[in-house]
Amino acid sequence: MNTKPKIYIPRPNFPQVIERLQSHFEVIHNQADEVVLHEHYVAKAAQSDGMLTTGSDLINEALLKACGSLKICANMAVGFNNFDLEGMTRAGVLATNTPDVLTQTTADFGFALLMACARRMVESEHFLRDQQWKQWRFDLLAGHDVHGSTLGIIGMGRIGQAVAKRASKGFDMKVIYHNRTQLPAATESALEATWVELADLLAQSDHVMLVLPYSAQSHHMIGARELAMMKPGAHLINIARGGLIDEDALVDALQSGHLGGFALDVFEGEPKINPRLLTLKRVVLTPHIASSTIQTRLKMSNLAADNLIEFFAHRKAITPLNPQVLEP
Length: 328
Ligand code: DGY
Prior knowledge:
single chain; alpha/beta; Rossmann fold; 2 domains; binds (2R)-2,3-dihydroxypropanoic acid
């Protein structure tokens, strides 16, 4: 008897994608949206040949040890810091992610956070709803201009470049960036973006946006020291991963009056939120939704599904992270 490979999907997903997967695989899913206890997650993963994971599903050494039949984890995310990639490669488990399909949507949201933060939109709405608006004032909830100001982008991959394009072309901003590798001159000139040292970026930017991958090396790359280097009144926007910022130092920098505000879509230890963050006014906090439009999340889900289908049908993948696993 020819048995279908088993795929485990620990979190709810698009019904049409699950249906698609069911025509190829035996699918264990969690459409009931139950928060899965770790031991259940490991037990279900251990019965599986493949998984469709999200950025919150850990694939670490312990899980890999417990899951001898696992051959592929298709992440429905471009980031993959939830994967122990080296461990997966050693264990012969293929890792895939979902680049490209979310670039523009995520850049849109980064820009929305920048605008909301610089123009104090969330704080203004609370002010109005709390019926504090008594009369027009010359400086009522006055923010900082976005157009014509300087944006510093840390991490200049696909999403960073899409943000840079919005900033320079749409808002006439001066764009500076810091990245391990400098972009080719033609790309820099098309984006009107200039590479600078991190210290210069922090000192010169009116708004700093984090768009770089999270790893042990980039853990808390923005701490008290870096925040102190930022321009007084500047804004910090994070659409990458929460662990890039020391959140307590960030709160201190806002409460001391040094920072003008910040906007975070990602948090260290999410979905738990550092309670100090929740007490602040001049901030915008959103629950990791930068890529969340129906169109884009469906593309991400389908790309993860395509990777699973391609792997089990042809031992290939569309967006592999450790393609060496596929070598004979
Ligand atoms: C990503 O794709 O890495 C996003 O953060 C997931 O929502």
